Input
Amino acid sequence: MTRGLRVDRPELPPGLVAIPVRTRLVRPGEDLAGIVRDAVRGIARPGDALAVSETAVAIAQGEIVPAEYVRPSKLAYLLARRAGALATVNQPESLQIVIDRAGVWRVLYASAMHVLARAIGRRGAFYEVMGEAIAAIDGYTGTMPPFERAIVFAPQNPDAFAQSVYEETGIACAVVDANDLEKAKVLGASSGLHRANVERALLSNPHGNGDEQTPVVVLKWRAQGPNPLFAAVTPP
Output
């Protein structure tokens, strides 16, 4: 029996339930929309929303590179040693890809801004300066085998993928980047879905960041009144 997790957020009315759905391991080149369709059969129905992990979408699209293929520079090693333990850029290989994509001078500027901001008690300046150049890369320590040493990039055209899942299943879909730090971002969604409310519903990260192998979460509305997955609502 598939169990649901009650979504308890002050920004949302009570009645939402999140059901993590286990799938087989997703590999590059596979039909992920078909995998999602088969996994949620008998669990999801129209009126629900499917939240698919952006990592699974990226892997299926082949948007990964083994860390062994990357040769970090001295600068990458130097800066990675000064990054926080949970930061993507504490891995020299990941940081080297950021350097290659954004350029040495931009990374040095972001590092300088980080130091200045920390001196006045403000965090996150490095990520603010780097923007999408760093947001599009996932470090390899959080990805399960056999991809634990693979650097995962952002999925390509997540809106189109989400729409393809909707067309196969008749169920709304979002591609979501969520983590255990209570952060969730919808990268792409099928038409009609309320992106902000989907993000709020996933802040507790029911996908998991370990070896749960649950890249799909079914969001269900089990109450009266407007479904917040498709409409903006005011909490009671």
The longest strand covers residues 172-179. The longest helix spans residues 104-119. The CA atoms of residues 4 and 19 lie 4 Å apart. The chain is about 35% helix and 20% strand.
